[in-house]
Structures are given as C-alpha cells and as structure tokens.
C-alpha cells in the first residue's frame, strides 16, 4: 500500500527533461463547480483530468498571463486535448501498472475544480495543482510496481515516485524509488522524505533520515533545518532574512524574496525586469520582453 508520494506533474516534467518549479501564478481563490459527468473509469480518467486542469487554468488566468507562462493553447478544449495526449504518451498508451480507485479519481477532479488559483502550476501545456490541495489525485491508482520496478509515472509505483536517470551514453531508464522514512538509511537529504534531513555523523558514510531541526539547533547546511529556516554562519538553524536583510544566497532569504547582490529583495512584480523565472513573484519571466508576467487574477 502506498505510504507517501510526490506531485505527479514532476514526473511528467522530468520525462521531458524540463526543471519544474511551482508557479504561484494566480491570486484569486474563486472556485468552480465540479466538472461533473459519470464516475470516471481508468480509461476515461485522463480525459477528464486534463479537462479539469485546463478549465481551471483558463478560468484563473487570462490570455496574456497564460502566454507569459508559455501556455499557447487557443482554448481550454485545445489545452485539454494536448495535455491528455501527453498523459497518454507517458503512461504507455494510457495504461497504468496498478488498480484504478474510482472514488479517489472522482475526489481528485473535484479538488482540481476547487483548487485556489494561486496554486496552479504552469509550464507550457503541462499543468498541475499543488498536491496539498489535490491529495486524491496522487491516489487515483493504487500502484503495483515494486521498489526498483520499471515505471512510467508515479501512479505506477506502490510507494512514492518514478525516477528517471540518463547514463553517459544518453540511455534513459526509469524505476520506482521511494524516499526513505525516518530511521531509514540515507546518503544525502535527497534520499529522505520531504520533511526529513539526512543525519550523517561521519560523511560520506551513510546516515539516517531524521526530522529537520528547529531554531537554535546545530546544523551543517540549510537542508538540516526546517523549511522556513536556514543554517546561519554560526552553524545553527535560524530564521531566514526578510526583504532588506543581508544574504549570501537565495536560501538566506524569506519566502517571496531572493538574494540580489548581498541583500534580500522582493521578487519582481508584473512588469519588473528579469532574466529568469526565479526573479519573479509569478515565477514567469516573459522572454519576449525580459519582464515579469503578472500573476493571474481569476475570472
């Protein structure tokens, strides 16, 4: 039985060799009615899932903002057709190695319809919603591929995630790989569940996954500390700097800010100059203008 899994969208993005970052591109929390229709089946779920994501995105984000996030579909229906094709392609023709769970699938569609606009994730035609608002989507299938088994998406895996890797010759393989739970061995924080750190008393020897540390605890790096904290110069976990505070890197700065030179500065609003998506509050730097896109306002 599945115990914990990350956002499926990340798997699709890794499959097309694109780095994914959450796009908090929409500021209105207006919700919509459920997408309706009959109870989904495994064969029909991708179509309804793609439609729900595209309908929500087109309701939340106007044409200019969609374009700034590289979503160039002419309509929600065209978007859904493209997204469904991607889902089908990366699941090997729409087949998932697992048991379809209709009640979770139906709940997933309702969660997408009700998701806050601010939690939409957009990268071209690849769309998603923060899994904190759509937890049922991760469990639309009860995956049966074991640890180390071949997979296409996270849905295939009995536990956690489908990881793709490419060797020196360019050959790509994929396998189910679970993040370690507290008390399980690790060689770095990457191998631990998201809320954990890798406690390595004698690096590079393997350590053990353990809870991340609170303010004042001794640390070796910011990944040792709780998410809202950083590891300071004195080797202890401490609050991140607000706008105007000193910094050496982005991880020194509080959410909504970045390290600009040696000072934490607010992320750029719509129209601010930018060179990368990470410069912008919307996480979208429009290449054509070199300025930050506006966040979506809903409709």
Q: Give the number of DSSP strands.
A: 15
Which residues sit in consecutive blocks of at least 5 with pLDDT less than 50? Answer: 1-7, 15-40
Helix content: 10-25%
Rounded radius of gyration (Å):
20 Å
Widest sheet: strand ordering: 7-9-8
Q: How does the helix and strand content classify structurally?
A: alpha+beta
Q: Please provide the ordered H/E string of secondary-structure elements.
A: HHHHEHEEEEEEEEEEEEEE
What is the average per-residue confidence, as pLDDT, rounded to a whole number?
83
Helical segment tally? Answer: 5
Cα end-to-end separation: 40 Å
Which terms summarize this structure?
single chain; 299 residues; alpha+beta; three-stranded antiparallel beta sheet; two-stranded antiparallel ribbon; disordered N terminus
Q: How is this structure best described in words?
A:
By secondary structure, the protein is of the alpha+beta class. 20% of the residues lie in helices and 18% in strands. It contains five helices and 15 strands. The protein has helices spanning 8-15, 42-60, 63-68, 76-90, 102-114, and strands at 98-100, 120-123, 126-129, 141-143, 161-166, 172-177, 185-186, 196-199, 207-211, 229-231, 237-239, 257-260, 263-266, 285-286, 291-292. The strands form seven sheets. The protein has a three-stranded antiparallel sheet with strand order 7-9-8, with no helix packed on it. A two-stranded antiparallel ribbon has the order 1-4. Strand 10 (229-231) and strand 11 form a beta hairpin. The longest helix is centred in the N-terminal third of the chain and has 19 residues, at 42-60. The model is unreliable at 1-7 and 15-40 (pLDDT under 50).
């Amino acid at each position: 039985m599945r115990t914990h899994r990350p956002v499926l969208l990340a798997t699709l993005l890794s499959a097309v060799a694109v780095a994914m970052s959450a796009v908090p591109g929409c500021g209105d929390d207006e919700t919509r009615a459920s997408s309706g229709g009959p109870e989904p089946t495994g064969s029909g779920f991708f179509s309804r899932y793609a439609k729900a994501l595209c309908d929500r995105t087109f309701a939340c984000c106007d044409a200019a903002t969609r374009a700034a996030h590289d979503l160039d579909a002419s309509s929600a229906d065209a978007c859904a057709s493209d997204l469904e094709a991607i889902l089908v392609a990366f699941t090997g023709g729409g087949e998932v190695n697992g048991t379809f769970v209709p009640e979770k699938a139906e709940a997933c569609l309702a969660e997408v319809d009700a998701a806050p606009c601010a939690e939409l994730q957009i990268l071209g035609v690849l769309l998603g919603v923060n899994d904190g608002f759509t937890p049922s989507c991760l469990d639309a299938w009860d995956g049966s591929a074991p640890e180390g088994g071949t997979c296409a998406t996270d849905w295939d895996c009995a536990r956690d995630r489908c990881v793709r890797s490419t060797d020196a010759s360019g050959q790509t393989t994929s396998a189910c790989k679970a993040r370690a739970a507290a008390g399980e061995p690790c060689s770095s924080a990457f191998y631990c569940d998201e809320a954990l750190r890798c406690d390595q008393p004698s690096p590079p020897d393997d350590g053990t996954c353990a809870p991340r540390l609170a303010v004042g605890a001794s640390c070796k790096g910011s990944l040792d500390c709780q998410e809202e904290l950083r590891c300071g110069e004195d080797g202890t976990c401490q609050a991140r700097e607000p706008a105007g505070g000193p910094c050496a890197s982005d991880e020194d700065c509080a959410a909504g800010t970045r390290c600009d030179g040696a000072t934490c500065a607010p992320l750029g609003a719509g129209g601010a100059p930018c060179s990368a998506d990470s410069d912008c509050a919307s996480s979208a730097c429009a290449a054509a203008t070199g300025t930050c896109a506006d966040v979506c306002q809903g409709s």
